[in-house]
Amino acid sequence: MRRFTGIAIALCLAAGAARAQTDIYLRTERAGRGKVPIIVREIEAASAPLGESASYLTGVIRTDLDYSGLIEVLRSSVGGEGGAEKIAGAVFEGSLAADGSSLVLEARLLDFMSRETIFSKRYRFGPDARRHVAHTVSDEIVYFLVGERGVATTRLLFRRGGEKGKDLHVVDYDGFGERRLTTDELVHSPLWLDGSRVCYSSDRRNNWDCYLLDLRKGSKYLITQWRGINFAGSYFAPRDEIAMTLSVDGNHEIYVLDSAGKVLRRLTRNRAIDISPSWSPNGAEIVFVSDRGGTPQIYIMDSFGANVRRLSRTGSYNQSPAWSPRGDIIAYCSREGGIYRLRLISPDGLVEETIFEDYASYEDPTWAPDGRHIAATSREGGRSWIVVIDIDTKEKRRLVQGESPDWSPLPPEPRTELLGR
Q1: Is the pLDDT of residue 2 over 60?
Q2: pTM exceeding 0.85
Q3: Once rounded to an integer, what is the mean pLDDT over residues 152-158?
């Protein structure tokens, strides 16, 4: 079955006269139904010493746009008479100059045919911020051409095994800029709260306590230390609510806490194991794992623990659900023949498919803010990799060795000097 491509399921509910009829649609469409073709010209350097930086910025922007899955990057031919000029919808140009110890990039996106300005901005930055500025520019291009923000400025949390445990790491969305955040700890369930705060569980005190780490301030403190496990699963920022798994009563149950560690409410009360909660984008529902039917399966409940229904219908061992930020798809892992398959399912269970039928095992899916890309743990040949998958094109790329990724939310809008529209 092809993935959610042009599927429209209409349920018509009659209520008296025909004019009182209500149409309810479940509609999921291929996001990549057509890439926007643009020419990305080499950024011009104001002086020879700036040539390397200009080339570096151009290369990162082109790679970002290619990774987006929404933009087709064209190369302009000499003389401007090649195929690229015949199909291009826009052209990106830039110039790089020095201003004291800072660099200044003037970036322009133009309509190719009319040469009208789509956007024109000036970025002032230090040499060590070149990659971040290039990511910012590429996200601007995506926004102005497609109407949604790109994910080039996002990051991923993950854990990697070492000599004395599995420490927490952070890396840019493209695998660059990796940093280790903990030392000689056994880390579990890393989770972004916002662009600077993350939480994770660690057994450093012989209990699975949950810590909050502020990357900007460099501070860390305990938020929950109930006896047993304290695993954060998903964060709903508008209400400052973390859906967590706690075993304080000896059984794995799902609770809602705030980021200070205060218990707001308990959602499940069941002899079964209830774990791995993930919020819906609107905060009205939570998808989770439970073995209340005898084997681990995917269930959905409302934000107060009521209206529980089973979602998964295939597979005897399903885990790690993750609700897409667009709300139309839930990713989860299903064990088949000793490996885990990455599956996608609509929230009503009517549409489902497996992403890959290869020899790798896929676990711990997490969505990018664009609802198009998934990061997951890929296990193959005795190694674990963080991979990023475009669910529309099925393209897959390795980032770094590690496991249990969590994708950051979008950062705040960048502050730049606006030259044009």
Answers
A1: no
A2: yes
A3: 98
Give the pair of three-digit tokens for residue 130.
């070149």
CA quadruple 402, 371, 331, 252: dihedral positive or negative?
A: positive
What 3-state class would DSSP assign to 95? strand
Q: What is the pLDDT of residue 421?
A: 29
Burial of 334 (0-12, 13-18, 19+ CB in 10 A): buried
3-class secondary structure, 216: coil
The mean predicted confidence, pLDDT, of the chain is: 88
DSSP string of 7-68, one letter each residue: EEEEEEEEESEEEEEEEEEEEE--TTSSPEEEEEPPPEESSGGGHHHHHHHHHHHHHHHHHH
- CATH (residue range 37-150): 3.40.50.10070
What region, left, alpha or beta, does residue 402 occupy, with left being phi > 0 and alpha being psi -120 to 50 degrees? left
CATH no. for 156-407: 2.120.10.30
Residue 34: band (very low, low, confident or very high) from pLDDT cuts 50, 70, 90: confident
Report d(CA 234, CA 264) in Å as an integer: 15
Beta bridge partners of 301: 286
Check if the beta carbon of residue 259 is closer than 8 Å to that of residue 244: no
> Residue 4's pLDDT is what?
31
Residue-level pLDDT at 17: 30
Domain boundaries of the chain, sorted by first residue: 37-150, 156-407
